[in-house]
Amino acid sequence: MPSGSFSDPLSTHNRSRDRRLYVNGEMIRGITNGDDAVLVGENFIGANDGVGAWAQKPRGHAALWSRLILHFWALEAERDKSVTSMASSPTEPDPIAYLQTAYEQTIEATSAPNEWKGTTTACGAHLHHTIGRAASEPMLYVTNLGDCQVMVLRPTTWKMVYKTTEQWHWFDCPRQLGTNSPDTPKANAVLDKIEIKEGDVVLAMSDGVVDNLWEHEILRNVQDSMQRWASGQVAGVATNDTGNPEGGMLYVARELVKAARTIAEDPYAESPFMERAVEEGLAMEGGDTWCLFFQESCPNDEIGKLDDISVVAAACRRRKG
Question: What's the predicted TM-score (pTM) here?
Answer without folding.
Answer: 0.85
